[in-house]
Amino acid sequence: MTFNLDTYLDAFSGPFVIERLHHIFLRSQSHNTRVQAATTALHMMQEYSSVAPFAKDLVEYVTQSSPQVLSETLLRDLYRSFDVESLRLLLEIEVYVEKAPLGAPDSAAEDAEEAAIRATIEKLAVMQAIAHETLQASNTLVSAGHLPHADMSTHRHIEAHWLCLMFEPKNVPYLISTHLKRNDIHRNLATASEAETDAFYRVKWYTLLGNFLEKNYDVVVSEFTALVLDPKLLLVLFSVNFNQLVNVPTMVIIVFLSLYLVSSTREFTDAFFGTSEDVDPKERSAVSGALEELVDHTPPVFRRFVDELLTTNSYARLNDLMGSSDFKDVVDTDLFLSSNWDQIKTIVLQKQILGYLSAVRSVNVGHLAKKLGVAPLDVREAVSDLVVVLDLRFKYNPLDDSYVLYEEEAESDNGQAMDHLLFSLDVATTSSVVSNFVVRNFVE
Fold first, then answer.
1. Cβ-contact 372, 353 below 8 angstroms
2. Which residues have C-beta within 8 Å of that of residue 409, sequence separation ≥ 6?
3. 148 vs 144: CA distance, rounded Å
4. pLDDT tens digit string along 261-270?
5. Which residues neighbour 370 within 8 Å (Cβ) at sequence distance 6 or greater?
6. Is 136 exposed, middle or buried (CB count within 10 Å of its CB: 0-12, 13-18, 19+)?
7. DSSP 215-254
């Protein structure tokens, strides 16, 4: 299936699309797609009167290959527009704050005037975010708290911070730690408007996204499990307004991948089919029902991936799927999934190998490579890493290119703990312990 940028863009709205277009510009192998992504991003910058740091790269690429597409003065005009418009908005905000009356608005006109200035503040913050001036964007949004009738606790205001600060991934830990707390502290949905309530739940989803980007896969699962008991969570996810920062298919994939990475095969299938006896029946039913509903909102190739996880869980077949052009289109074109994908593939491979090692006393590298559908070198490196990091009782035999279990007691507590894990029934394929080891030791 050929990647279609227009179809891809139909799934998103808002200024963050500029970041997605830049990502596609960097990752695509198609010259036409790169030109289209670059020109679309530049036109969006014009629309928002802002200029991203990578605008010069986009202009240079397009003018070198398709000079007729862009005006020669476009880049200069972008900077001029940003400078003039941002200054105008700042002055508008300052003038309002100086003359605004204290106390609650006593007329519809005053109420409308303050609503207008809030929109101005958000517009300026978006312009700064596009320019990757996220600190200034945050300060601009905070300035809304100095308005005479401000309510800094509003969930829409918290959401605005997410939508602006996510232009730079370095802000994710701050967003998780600060604005998640504010979102919960000020939760008062009984009297909140529909817009406020929806913003509250969108921030909950954004927090799952943030934890995924920070590789906190276990937190994604625990938070999702707790949140899904509230039916409003899925209603907001499937609403027409959930497409500015991340869309539904990506969010669903994030939940499923996180669940798989930190669960044993039995735990994963139990969660999906609601068959776990160790979980409260209400929670079990809510999670199972949500997962079944969510999987229907993913691309067909990912649904096949989930089906494979739920049935044979064969790495060779998973590897074939992950290597298909359809799957690569889903991952490579997504700004968030692609950032973690190399690590995710590493974890999946390591856990498959650990599952195999837990059931044998020796393993030939060539045989295991063929079984997994990967190169012998990948298997050799993976097993060597696991042996060192987890202190597994396997030694490499270069004569027949194999790893053999030896009987001496492992010296480290780490090794003893993993020995117990590897030879228990639950270790047949996966565990959150393995996932955490791989995250900390194998991938930057």
1. yes
2. 416
3. 9
4. 888 778 888 8
5. none
6. middle
7. T-HHHHHHHHHHHTTSTHHHHHHTSTT--SSS-HHHHHHH
| Distance, CA of 37 to CA of 4 (rounded, Å) | 11
Q: What is the dihedral of CA 376, 380, 381, 382, to 10 degrees?
A: 100
Q: Evaluate whether 117 touches 110 at the Cβ level (below 8 Å).
A: no
Retrieve residue 249's tokens. Answer: 């298919």
Structure tokens of 372?
């997994």
Q: Both tokens of residue 233? A: 């969570």
Q: What pLDDT sits at residue 248?
A: 92
d(CA 59, CA 67): 9
Is residue 136 in some structural domain?
yes
* Neighbour count for residue 386 (Cβ, 10 Å): 24
DSSP 358-410: TT-SEEEHHHHHHHHTS-HHHHHHHHHHHHHHHT-SEEEETTTTEEEE--SPP
Angstrom distance (rounded) from CA 369 to CA 350: 12
Task: Please tell me the chain's helix, strand, coil percentages from 3-state DSSP, rounded to the nearest 5.
Answer: 70, 0, 30
Three-class SS string for 90-134? HHHHHHHHHHCCCCCCCCHHHHHHHHHHHHHHHHHHHHHHHCCCH
In a domain, 439, yes or no: no
- DSSP SS3 for 350: helix
Number of domain units in the chain: 1
**Amino acid identity of 121?**
I
71 inside domain: yes
Structure tokens at 240: 């027409």
Helix (H, G, I), strand (E, B) or coil at 151: coil
Which two structure tokens, joined as six digits, stand for 131?
Answer: 């320019």
Domain of residue 38, residue span: 1-150
- 45 is a domain residue: yes
Task: Write the CA distances from 311 to 176, 237, 272, 320, integer angstroms.
Answer: 35, 28, 12, 15
* Secondary structure class of 313 (helix, strand, coil): coil
How does pLDDT run across 298-352, given as a tens digit for each residue?
Answer: 889 899 988 888 887 677 888 888 888 888 888 999 999 999 898 888 888 888 8
What pLDDT does residue 429 have?
34
Helix-helix angle 217-227:194-213, to 10 degrees: 150
